[in-house]
Amino acid sequence: MDNILDSSIQYLKGVGPRRAELLKAELGIGTVRELLEFFPFRYVDRSGITPIAQARPDLAYIQIEARVVSRALYASGGVQIIPDERKQKLNSCKRLVVTVEDGSGSMEIVFFKGIRWNYERLEPGKTFVFFGKPQLFGQRTNLVHPEVDSPGTAAAENSISGVYPSTERLRAAVTGKTMCKLMATALEAALPQIEETLPDYVMKDNGLVSLKFALRNIHFPKDQSSLEKARYRLKFEELFLLQLSLLRQKFKRSRAEKGYVFSKVGASFHSCYNSLPFSLTEAQKRVIREIRTDMSGGRQMNRLLQGDVGSGKTMVAVLSCLIAEGNGFQSCIMAPTEVLARQHYANISKYLANTGVKCALLTGSTSRKDRAEIHAGLEDGSIGIIVGTHALIEDSVKFRALGLAVIDEQHRFGVEQRSRLWAKSAIPPHVLVMTATPIPRTLAMTLYGDLDVSVIDELPPGRKPVRTMCVSEHRKNAVFDFMKKEIGKGRQAFVVYPLIFESEKSDYKNLENGYEEIVKAFPLPEYKVAIVHGRQNSEEKEFNMSAFVAGRANILVSTTVIEVGVDVPNASVMVIESAQRFGLSQLHQLRGRVGRGSDESYCILVKDDKTGKDAQERLDLMCATEDGFEIAEQDMRMRGPGDMEGTQQSGLPVNLHIASLAKDGQLLSMAREYATKVLERDPDLSLGVNRPLVLQLRREKYGIRDFSKIS
Ligand code: ADP
Ligand code: MG
Q1: Probe residue for ligand 1, chosen from 272, 308, 314, 567 as the CB with the greatest number of ligand atoms within 8 Å
Q2: Would 131 disulfide with which of 63, 87, 545, 640, CB 3.0-4.6 Å?
Q3: 362-386 average pLDDT score
């Protein structure tokens, strides 16, 4: 027999071809299953009766049970119709006001429509249940057009009812009430055929109600506690299956991809470690332990390292490379730009000074002669660590034994480019991807659910906070004066303009005008101003950038191209123009460019006078905290995970129906832990008891794109 769940809703009583078409077009609902998986987005609770004395206009809805005391009818212009005229004039009435009381107080119920019908049934002395949104009228709270039922009738008793999302077009043909009726019809028809989707043991272990119970109560909750149980079950199932699917890929991959075994920690690691001018933070130590465990286990490491700007990721990368070196393998560190690669090279060379490990830099501008030497050094193995840009993935670059690839700022590298790195090694090298764009844990677990994630959640001690303030545009002169004071002390300043749309002319106009304004306010020869933007060719860009990095320019005017990684410890001021136009994570990245030296640093957010409420909220948050993870969490809360910056490229792997990554973080962690347990026992889900899970994972919803080749 065909399963009714997969049949079209068209054949349900009360649907028909027209409504079916609309439901499909507007909500994507085609089958009975899809209808039943379309959940209310909120509920109206009619389970209690509120005494009139407690009715306040700030309550969303109230239900009162009260006796009609009197009725008054009004014609247009507010003229009250005297009782004798009532019968004749009922049709021309504009307003009916019914006064009711329940022992705790009295209240007016107002109707502008259906006057005759309501007048006739709301007879004085009778008691009714009124349900509606309380409103303030003058000094008093009243109810306008409430639902009216007799006490004890089904509607008055049906405690909690769902409200379904809808669209304007749909509402004309399918009202909220109709939707509820359809749902009831569908449930009744389908319930006998609904099979449990989770194995018994999963339900027992997690205290879940059955799918039947959950579906019935998510649509027609018996009471608040049944609704909670239903919701919990459905959310858990959704998150559990999602994690199960991601983790299964991860388990599969880690069994399939053999990795080089780095069992030793060699001399170079120790001599670097022991000669550090500082001690590692606990977070750095923890992450290095995680990486060591990965690289010694016989499987390929695929780890994402998240750490706020300045948290010391480079150090972790270097020590990881030295572990490879201690086992006879080479490493490469790839950066997205030449400036960054050079900076990494300079820093890393310092860290390596006492180790005897040879490090080289390879970029697009490396001379032919140097290039040949480097190629030779990589092939014979005399170069232990190579730092560079995309130049590293060219085919002419060959390694004697590439054991570890470190990729800085992952989103600037395409997946394809990364996979070209793999080809340079007999079996894929271990991969460490570093990012300074903090992603909330819940999102990371979903986006990168099949990668291992390490987090450096602690900054090195002694770092001075960046003082952040928000000023209005018309106080620009004060900002310039402040910059002059800092420059007078030998510091440097960034001035950043928004360039949201690369192609937008007006954005370049802003940048150009801004540059002129700055040059006027900071004239030669006292001040030197460099400018960097996306329309320059790479030489021009490098030239300007290097002038600032080397301290030859006092001010760098730029678009957000400086967002990533650049380290100029001498820069103490970051001015962000039209700050209201930036997203939170971008503002945070930009602010991370200062505060890298030992001096007090400042971030000045210059805002437009027309800054909206949301934008102001972002700016306020920036002034309130420097914690990248907190900012990311708030960002997710404000905008929803789908719109988070830094995730657009990868996108969310699934559309969650009922669970929310922003709100159900704890449940997600639980579901993930439990999914791990299930897979540890049955990695292929081949046991009979797990058959229902396999069936669920086959559904399109969990046919998640393959993220395992992310690096
Ligand atoms: P990011 O995570 O932004 O890449 P870096 O690795 O560039 O951070 O480190 C920022 C600065 O902090 C560097 O100058 C580095 O030498 C320094 N640093 C790294 N780890 C520590 C530590 N444990 N204690 C003190 N300073 C550190
Ligand atoms: Mg860095």
Answers
A1: 314
A2: 63
A3: 95
